[in-house]
Amino acid sequence: MSRRYAILDVFTNTSLAGNPLAIVLDSEGLSDEQMQKIAGEFNLSETVFVFPPENPGHSANMRIFTPKLELPFAGHPTVGTAILMAKERFGEVSNEQDAVVVLKQNIGTVRCAVILRENAAAFAEFDVPSLPEPAGPTHNVELIAAALNLEPTDIGFENHAPSRFRVGPPFTFVPVRDLDALARAKPVQSMWKAGFGKDGHNDAYVYCRETRSHDSAFQARLFAPDMGIPEDPATGSAAAAFAGVVDYYDDLPSGTHHIRIEQGFIMGRPSLIDLEIDIDGGNMHAVRIGGQATLVARGELFL
C-alpha cells in the first residue's frame, strides 16, 4: 500500500534550517510497532502519523514518535502538521490565506491558527493545551554540570537556577552564564542518568540570556540522548514548559509577553520559536507557541 509523506523544516523561513519533521499521511491501519519502525527509518527527532478525525469538528488525529518512543505532545510537530493540513486544504494560495486547524493529540485537542503566504514560509501558532507545571526537583549542580561537560561555575545567571517543568513530557531547564558556556555544553553519556535521572524523559534544555539577535530573549539547546536525539534543533514542547521557568524566575507583570527563543544555531540548524505568555493578576492564564515552516519534500512509503 502506498502512503504519502512530507518533510517540512519547522521554526524557520528557509529550507535546510530549523527542525526537520516527517509527516506520514494516510496512516490508517499502521500498528504501533510499524509507526515506531517508520520513525526509526526517518531518524528525525519526530515523525507524525495523521489519521482521519474522530470528531467531525477536528482537522485530523495525530500521533508523534521519536526514533525510540511515542510522545503525548510536541511543539514542532504541531506547527508543521497544522501548516501541512492547511496546505492540503487550500493548495497554492494568492496573497494570504488564514486557516484554523484543530488537531487531536494524545494530550488533548490543540487549536492552531495558520497563515499561508504566496511564495513565502507559512506561519502557525497554537494554544498550548495545558499550562506548564513544576515537574519535581533537579539533581545537584555538580552532577548536572558533569553530565553537560561543564563546570559548576558555568551553571546559573541572575536568580536562575536549574529547574524542572512540564507540558506533557518533563524537561530539566539548565541556565548557563553566556553563549560560550552554551557552546561548550555536550552530553556526557556516562554521567547523563546521574545528572538528569533514569526515566525515559531525562532531557536537558540548556539556555542563556545572551543571544545572536537583539530581537531574541534567550538562546537554548536541547539534549535528549536517551530518546535517540543527541541534539534537537528546535523544541516547541520545551519552549511551552519554559514559560513556567520564565514566569517563576522573572516574575512577569500582567499583560501579554512576547519572547523569541533562538535554538539550533550552534548545530547549524538555526531556529526561531515565538513564545507568548498571558499574565493576569500575577497568574499565568495562557501560553502560545508560534513559528514558520517550509515544505521541502513529498514522497510515498510502500508499506
TrEMBL record:
Name of a matching Pfam family: PhzC-PhzF
InterPro entries to which the protein is assigned, alphabetical: Phenazine_PhzF-like (IPR003719)
Signal peptide limits: none
Gene3D superfamilies, per database record: Diaminopimelate Epimerase, Chain A, domain 1
Family per record: Belongs to the PhzF family.
Protein's name according to its UniProt entry: PhzF family phenazine biosynthesis protein
Organism: Roseibium porphyridii
